[in-house]
Amino acid sequence: MEAEATELERRVLAHARILQSLICFLAESQPEILERLKSAFGSGHNVGEYEQDYSSTEQYGDMFVRMIEKEIARGAPH
């Protein structure tokens, strides 16, 4: 993998971790935030008919919300 691609990947992962932590903090006092996120991103299981490796934005959003729910369920420090 090229150095630029690796740097971009690290930056994206860092942003995802920051967002995940922020949403966990918000969910502690506003549990309804997870339901709102799930309603916005929870319908993402419509893989393209001819695209085996295709993932939509909604699918990534749904996976992200599920990761947050798992973190909250574990009671992990943010």
Describe the structure.
This protein has 78 residues and is an all-alpha fold. The protein has 3 helices and no strands. The longest helix has 27 residues. It starts with a helix and ends with a helix. The model has no long low-confidence stretch (mean pLDDT 82).
Question: What's the structural blueprint in terms of helices and strands?
Answer:
Elements: H1 3-29, H2 32-41, H3 57-74
Helix pairs in contact: 1-3, 2-3
Brief digest:
This protein is an all-alpha fold and 78 residues long.
The parts where pLDDT drops under 50 for at least 5 residues are none
Assembly type = single chain
Largest beta-sheet characterization: none
- Count of helical stretches: 3
Number of beta strands: 0
Structural class: mainly alpha
Classify the helix fraction into a percent range: over 70%
The coarse overall form would be globular
Radius of gyration: 15 Å
- Could you give the order of the helices and strands? HHH
Query: What's the pLDDT, averaged over the residues?
Result: 82
Q: Quote the distance from N terminus to C terminus.
A: 30 Å
> What fraction of residues sit in β-strands?
under 5%
Feature tags:
single chain; 78 residues; mainly alpha; 0% strand; globular
